[in-house]
Design brief:
Keywords: Membrane, Transmembrane, Transmembrane helix. It comes from Microbotryum saponariae. This is BZ3500_MvSof-1268-A1-R1_Chr2-2g04742 protein. The protein is of the alpha+beta class and 271 residues long. The chain folds into 2 domains: 220 residues, Pnp Oxidase, Chain A (Roll), CATH 2.30.110.10; 48 residues. Helices cover 31% and strands 22% of the residues. A hairpin with a 2-residue loop joins strand 4 and strand 5. The chain is globular and about 90 Å long. It starts with a strand and ends with a helix. The relative contact order is 0.14. About 8% of the residues have low confidence.
Length: 271
């Protein structure tokens, strides 16, 4: 059943962790009324065990940045990584630790993810380092079986498109990653006055996972999703305004017709 350790207890468990295709990351601000975040992470080789008490994972850009914001919060840094067995014997493993953020372009980032490393996926934002101080294992008897089929490459294709635009990832970070849902500051690369990262990570320059070079879905074909949504919103507002204008004309016309009819009736009665 459940057990706790100061470090990952054996090589067998370390090998099992390295084989997992999915892991979950949890973090939370220090405030008691703030939101607790839990994010699923996938893709080949995102998570790396350094030894029995330290690890890191490649942080890909998303529409939010809860983990980075919580780790940057003064006095915080708490992070939990969870792995679950979806095949084979049941098992749940949690790695409790303190996290550090090594943003793209920093010396630490370049050290752990040097040029030419196939894990430099499009949209890579940071390296999240974890100093593990407790490891928990539990049974996982109620976790259902799931069959792994393949990686989902929609995010890589979308970020590959962003990387190739003027300004690279900078405009997207500035739009989506400035702060967390609780208002904590996001990654420094998202700040308006932060310099633009020099190198662009693209599918052509990375390993890209399984069949990552295959473009799929409208997200990778239709340009900037944000601009598309703004355009559609503008069209909707214009449509509502035009419909209201037509309705106003109809009401004015109907009132005019009614007024003329009343005048004719009163004129007839007066005769």
């Amino acid at each position: 059943m459940g057990a706790f350790y100061d470090t990952i207890p054996n090589d067998t468990l370390m090998d099992w962790i390295r084989q997992q295709k999915l892991f979950f990351v949890s973090s939370s601000p220090l405030s008691s009324d703030a939101h607790v975040n839990c994010s699923p992470k996938g893709h080949d080789a995102l998570f790396t065990l350094v030894d029995d008490k330290s690890a890191y994972y490649v942080d890909l850009t998303g529409s939010g940045n809860e983990t980075i914001s919580c780790l940057y919060e003064e006095g915080n840094g708490r992070i939990t990584i969870m792995f679950v067995a979806f095949e084979g014997p049941p098992r749940i493993v949690r790695l409790f630790g303190k996290g550090k953020v090594f943003e793209r372009g920093s010396p630490e980032f370049e050290n752990y993810l040097p040029p030419g490393d196939p894990r430099r996926y499009p949209g890579t934002r940071a390296i999240i380092w974890i100093d593990i101080h407790k490891v928990g294992t539990s049974c996982g008897y109620s976790v259902p079986f799931f069959e792994y089929k393949k990686e989902r490459n929609t995010l890589l294709n979308f970020m590959d498109n962003q990387e190739k635009k003027e300004g690279g990832m900078k405009p997207y970070w500035n739009l989506k990653n400035l702060s967390s849902v609780d208002g904590l500051p996001g990654p420094k690369v998202a700040e308006p006055d932060a310099p633009e990262p020099g190198e662009k990570f693209t599918l052509e320059g990375s390993g890209g996972g399984n069949n990552a070079s295959t473009k799929t879905g409208k997200m990778s074909e239709g340009g900037d999703v944000v601009q598309d949504l703004m355009a559609r919103s503008a069209m909707l507002l214009f449509g509502l305004f035009f419909a209201g204008w037509l309705l106003g004309l109809r009401i004015t016309f109907d009132e005019g017709v009614a007024r003329e009819a009343r005048q004719r009736v009163w004129g007839t009665l007066a005769i």
